[in-house]
Structure prediction request, 285 residues.
Amino acid sequence: MTRLLPVPVSLATSVALAMPGAYARPTPKSPHEAKAVAAANRAATIGPAAQGFVNAAQVYAFAGGMIYHVITAPEQVTDISLQPGETLIAVASGDTVRWVIGDTTSGSGAEKRTHVLVKPFSAGLATNLVITTDRRSYHLSLTSVARTAMMALSWTYPQDDLLALKRAPAAVEAAAPIAAGIEVEQLHFNYAVSGDKPSWRPLRAFDDGRQTFVEFPASLAVGEAPPLFLVDAKGDAQLVNYRVRGRFYVVDRLFDVAELRLGTRKQQVVRITRTADGEPKRRGA
Prediction:
């Protein structure tokens, strides 16, 4: 079912319309301004093209600020399809008297899709349409002809595709198992964990001769993660770069002594010490 959009008329507008001469249409300060606006609108308008149709639907590449031309006809409904998962906020048109404008949805869940439906009452009409959603704003130019309306139109979203492409390698890396490319015989587990016993205290630490891995209990995911400091031979501590992979810290180097510290007034400290033959390795050794 389509819904006619109400035409909002303020009290001030009603009074002005009721008093001849009380309201004057503002005009541009110079003809150059009107020409500049018209030229900008023409340059920003994209019309239907044969190569842009997929079956009977025209597919535009979305770009912010562009105006998409939609050709309609009386007694025919044109379906404007938004991106799956996109939520409609508002639809506004310059002429809601001579156009029927409504909306509906198809699908469900993540594939639920909003459709804005437009139909003119007669040929020879022209107006604009603005659709706002939770993701973007669409600007459309509507014209009506006697026959041959566009049945449907939708968009592709190059910017979204580019973001997804950039995120893909990071997602693959994050999903990769921590032991990918590591051989068991290369692992060294000669690390001792000492100090306080908070809920996030590491279960173990090990290295593969190149990187050091600190394994935490599953509770790390529901609490605050402690930063990792390297401790030098003088006892001075400095932050070290590391990556969080699930419940592992991955440090791209080997170390002799490191500490995990969390808190300010009552700090919890857990020390990780690399040992030799079961004995703590001396600093600087």
In short: The chain has a mean pLDDT of 82. The CA atoms of residues 91 and 131 lie 5 Å apart. The chain is about 15% helix and 35% strand. The two ends are 79 Å apart (CA to CA).
